[in-house]
Specification:
The structure holds 2 protein chains of 2 kinds. By secondary structure, chain A is mostly helical. Helices cover 73% and strands 0% of the residues of chain A. Helix content of chain B is 30%, strand content 27%. Chain B is globular. In chain B, the strands form 2 sheets. Chain B has a 6-stranded antiparallel barrel. Chain B has a 6-stranded antiparallel β-barrel with strand order 6-7-8-11-10-9. The chains are: A mainly alpha, B alpha+beta.
Chain lengths: 164, 263
Amino acid sequence: MEWTKQIGRYILVMVLQVLLFDQLQLWGACHPYIYLLCLLMMPITLPPIADMLIGGIIGLIMDMFCNSLGVHTASCILIMFLRPYLLGVILNDKDRLNEQVSLRSIGMEAFIKYVVILVLIHHLTVFSLAAWSWYHIGFVLLETAVSSVITIFVIIGYNILKYR
Amino acid sequence: MQTLLKILLRYSNFLVFIALEVAAFMLISYNSAYPRSSILSTANDVIAWQNAQISAVGEYFGLRSQNEQLAAENTALRNQISSMESAENRAAIHYESAKVVQMTTDQLHNYLTINRGSKDGIRRGQGIRNEDGVVGIVRTVGRNYSVVMPIINTQTNLSCRFVKNDYIGTLQWNGKDCRFAQLADVASHMVVNPGDTIVTSGLSPVFPEGIPVGIVESSVLKEGESYYTIRVRLHTNFKRLKYVEVVQNADQNELEELTNGMD
């Protein structure tokens, strides 16, 4: 039951990402990747290798839509690798992690820290890999800042509406 | 042996992570080389179809201006036909019309997808233009759709020339504003004035000579440098690109074989 819910959410969020958020061409630097919502909220019950593989597959699907083969794949594998370690650092007792990672299960403060850190890492990797040159560093940082704000806002907003 | 196995097991997560990242970076470097996968990109039938549906929704709102644009384009084409009939040497070029189903203008590596593919005779390396000027070069060809690298992509280089004196330069894009591109390799002894017209040079088989590119907006010669920094206002409005034409040069194969034989 839990897993059908997860997969349903994956489909819904990917459709939203491609149909709505990829179409936004605001201010030239705003490319929020809200599909991270699904990856970040997955429960920590699977072995880490399976987690990274799921991240890679979702990244590859995003790459097909963005014409950026490998860029999202590499970034998603990276955050899926970092996720358990980061949660270990942020949380004192890890017993609460049998269900999905959400605002309700790990608390407001820890959840915000967790989302902000991983979204920033992911967006920075995606935009720097796509630019692939120091010449564009200013634009990459601006893009990361603007897009991360939107992504973080959407992920935390979703959690506040649904799980508070 | 046992200790080695223990170490491998202990760091298995990290090793798998490294292996996966290496695979992802191989994908990235494979993608930056010339032949790209048509399945893992927007030339993929499913994704291109989906993009075509999205762009179809927006189309209803622009029908009136589209019609005017098409009418103007028809006249221009008819004029072109008559000029082609008179000039023998241009008969080798065939134009295939196509619709843009997906496009980005605000990234460093912009791409657009058109609804023509290998079954319509599209091949990689063919040029794309519209009635205003140069658009880009076909990069990936699927069966029904193709991905085009426009001149507003930081990886594009296009050989151009000044109309006034046939001086050659290279058009590049710095990733900032999709209305302007930069013209490199113009030496300081040239006199460059704002308003100078830039067209394609015809030095590569991708574009015939004389397709409009843009006009010089400003030119700066920095102290101690031997090349100008030139800003070119592009004729093509990438924000409103809907219909394009693929330039099919019947001699392109032969020309490419000739140049390849030189290496």
